[in-house]
Design goal:
Layout (H helix, E strand, L loop, with lengths): L11 H10 L3 H31 L8 H10 L8
């Protein structure tokens, strides 16, 4: 399920330069953002798990999205500013 999509504008020169170093710029961008999200998900799961262990509470959130949402709602993490 896709929640958000992004459009990125680059100059003709930047586009041509990228053609020299990569076959498919769109695939590279998608891979980069998905990998960063994967790393953030693991970090949040670890933070939330440790938070619940330290409080002696059960983890009732099931699945990565539920854990991320619980971490936000319980104040374990916040939106970067």
């Amino acid at each position: 399920m896709i929640h958000t999509s992004y459009s990125v504008g680059i100059t003709t020169g930047e586009y041509k330069a990228l053609q020299y170093v990569m076959i498919d710029q769109k695939d590279w961008i998608e891979n980069a953002i998905q990998n960063r999200a994967r790393i953030a998900t693991i970090d949040i799961q670890n933070l939330y798990t440790q938070y619940k262990i330290n409080k002696g509470e059960a983890i009732t959130a099931v699945g990565s999205t539920a854990i991320i949402e619980a971490a936000y709602s319980e104040g374990v993490i916040g939106i970067a500013t």
